[in-house]
Amino acid sequence: MREGGLVGLYPGTFDPITNGHLDIIGRAAQLCSKLVIGVARNAGKGPLFPTDERVEMVRAEVTPIAERTGTEIDVQAFDSLLIAFAQQVGAQVIVRGLRAVSDFDYEFQMAGMNARLDQRIETIFLMASERHQFISSRFVKEIAQLGGDISSFVPKLTLERTLRRVGRP
Q: How many domains does the chain have?
């Protein structure tokens, strides 16, 4: 990690990780000297992939970003309050991606609550790049399960694993 640099935390379920997630990670890596990707266990969302496999896929997919940017990227699972996890990993900022205006209301409320819990940790919002604005893990899973083509929404390793997981060759 570059000395004195910013430590960021980008949390999500990453079920599966999408090209939109990777876009945000790549841009956050340019801002932070260390970026922790927090993979939420959140069994309540009925994940397609178990947590350990999501962590493994995210690690594999972010390795090229870490090499390209020189940023230390650490991928960890968590099942605690987000602000507690941010404190645990020493994050100074929580990175959140915004795809559309509809994301903003929820994210704004969450940022406010997190600020009340620990005002030392700032939330920063990165807008999804235009070509990734409508990608969501939920839609990717639905499209894959119904036989649609998800190859433009996810990286290759994730594509292969997602298709296998939903019973497609």
A: 1
